[in-house]
Fold:
Amino acid sequence: MNGENNNMLEKILNLRDYVQKLEDISENIINHLNSLKDLDDSTRNIWTSDVKEFFHNTVSAWEVLTTITEGEPNLKNIDNSKSFLYAARNHLSKIISELKIFPSQKTSILIEKAETAFEECWDAFWIIYKKLLSEKEIVKPTKRVIKVSDLEYHLPCSVCGKSAVEFRIGYGRLDEKESLVFRGITLETSLNVKLANMLFKILQKKDLLGVHNFMKKYHSFEGVDAYCPECDKIYCWEHYNAREEYDDGFYDCTYGECPKGHKRMIDD
Ligand SMILES: [Zn+2]
Ligand SMILES: [Zn+2]
Structure:
């Protein structure tokens, strides 16, 4: 058992090579930004800090993993590591949209190198996550809708059982009065509390399509961001493989692709 642990620790420490490679590429990108004459200083500063954030997130994803081998693999730490890696992927997508504003052969090479190195890094991390998690018991979700109380319902991910959507009567972050608060995988929003009665009736019937249509009608065209209409299932951020897209450095939208390959825009 001890030997296995050492082996795992070694594998985690080896991830450092992938992180190192991303550090080199980040430096190359920053040097390239410094060489762009048409770029004004404030934009250059923003873009440079995007690159630094990208790199710091990959370092953090690695550092969180190095702490877990000292004791029992801890689900919370694995989750944190994943969150850093997702944040890094979103930053990279933003950085690429920024680089594309000044197209050149050098830009194309930098983008390709960054994408390839990140993909390799991503795959290496996921091999470790899967190994660490295979030693844990996987909890199979049994319910489509979880009633927490008369005022609160959760929709668990159909793959891992983690809560992906919450509806509750309460106060959202900016609310001055009681609302129907929705928290999905991409956003949190508050609806008129008078709608709660109608929604809770749909939830009691475990009618996920009904909940989706309710959100389409009363919030936005994307409906429930965690819901795949073709599967009639709920997925968390990880299992919907959610990806933020950027246009000229600004957030554009988020796409989800479920494990069956159904793709749709889940936030706009
Ligand atoms: Zn999940
Ligand atoms: Zn699907």
User: Anything to note?
Assistant: The helical segments are 2-14, 16-35, 41-68, 75-99, 105-134, 196-204, 208-218. The longest strand covers residues 163-170. The longest helix spans residues 105-134. The domain at 2-134 is CATH 1.20.140 (Butyryl-CoA Dehydrogenase, subunit A; domain 3).
